[in-house]
Predict the structure.
Amino acid sequence: MKIVDVREMSVPLVPSGANAVVSFDSHTVSFVALISDQRRNGKPVMGVAFNSIGRFAQSGILRERMIPRLLATPPDRLLADSGIGLDPAKVLEAIMAGEKPGGHGDRATAAAAIEMAVWDLNARLRDEPAAMTLARAAGHARHATSVSVYAAGGYYPAGDGKADLQDELARYRDQGFTHFKIKIGGLPLAEDLHRVQQAVDFAGDGACIAVDANGRFDLDHALAYARALTPLQLRWFEEPADPLDYALNATVCDTYSGSVATGENLFSLADVRNLLSFGGLRAERDVLQMDPGLSYGITEYLRMIAAVEAAGFGRNQCIPHGGHLINLQVVAGLGLGGCEAYPSVFQPVGGFGDSTEIRDGQVHVGDAPGFGLEQKASLRPIIEQLVS
């Protein structure tokens, strides 16, 4: 088999307010479609993916560098040894030809869109969910049919807008969620603590609430928040500082008795190794949130998981950032600790399929082929436009 065409499209996200660092009003996402020469029911089999959220589309890198390299590679050099589909690692190697080490930011997200489309294609060739394809690649006998999930929200409204945090959490609870994450760092400490206390009061237990500073704090502010949050016994305190400031992260871990979560803004195996070596993370309690859609795709993510396990952490401590259908399949296929969801932000990609069942904090994975993106009605027009 071979790839006969590769298509890319930048899709704007619906404005979603702001965290403590940036507004998401202008954010975009790259969608990629790999069109193969294989056919099912008279139509070509395609793989479709996007490069997660929280960054921007990478049309220039994709169109000018990576897609031409992929199309120029002899098809037989990309085939899987099994004879079914493509080898994602070989595709990643092809699209990274000529790239120097380092500089993992935007390039990592561009590569991820293509690499993950390979997994979607391979799963569709077998007419199975991507979770099953991933489980097989990881040497697992089967994939999980349901996984733990939490609702991420609690953003700061744009401008002078006001939002009732407990009303928002109530909507998530009505959808089947039992655990929630909200933003901190965008208001003075006392006001932020009031919001966190509101969330804890709503959930009835601090262990049901996580907070996310999005790398906002310097050392003094990080430690001030750590001291103030400790009595609440939250699920975790996420990204208290710049994701590459391992020394500051280690100081927080040494001071804060609760769980610290980080990793979503680390885009390579080398970054993760540095975090594990110098970030002070505690194997018995902290959470790793690397996102394959921001870090070269699932091939690199599997390498990260191997490094995490070698450092004494369990897969149950890996809960990827992302909150969308692709990472739901990743979590289920690789046996990870849980999944994020964005039920009301980062549309059209945030959240799961329209008929996806969430009950008592567990999400049913479903059996749609590939990543099942067509199960979300808001994504169907995008896919149709991409492949028409």
User: Anything to note?
Assistant: The chain has a mean pLDDT of 95. The first strand starts at residue 3 and ends at 12. The two ends are 21 Å apart (CA to CA).
